[in-house]
Amino acid sequence: MTPAPLNDSGISALKPETFECAGAAAPGWDIYHLEREWRDWIIEPPRDADRAFVGFCAKWFEKRGRA
């Protein structure tokens, strides 16, 4: 099995189902905007990028509420 290609941030591409989970974690927000914010914010690649991104979205929503 070949790992997913890395992008500029060194983080593998996220799974399609991750975006569904992220949308549920941050309803009303543009998930692709949040992905850019997350990739700009992250310092080093996490062990589980998909889980880390969903967690980031949940925290974003917790702090900022619905868009």
From TrEMBL:
Organism domain of life: Bacteria
Full protein name: Uncharacterized protein
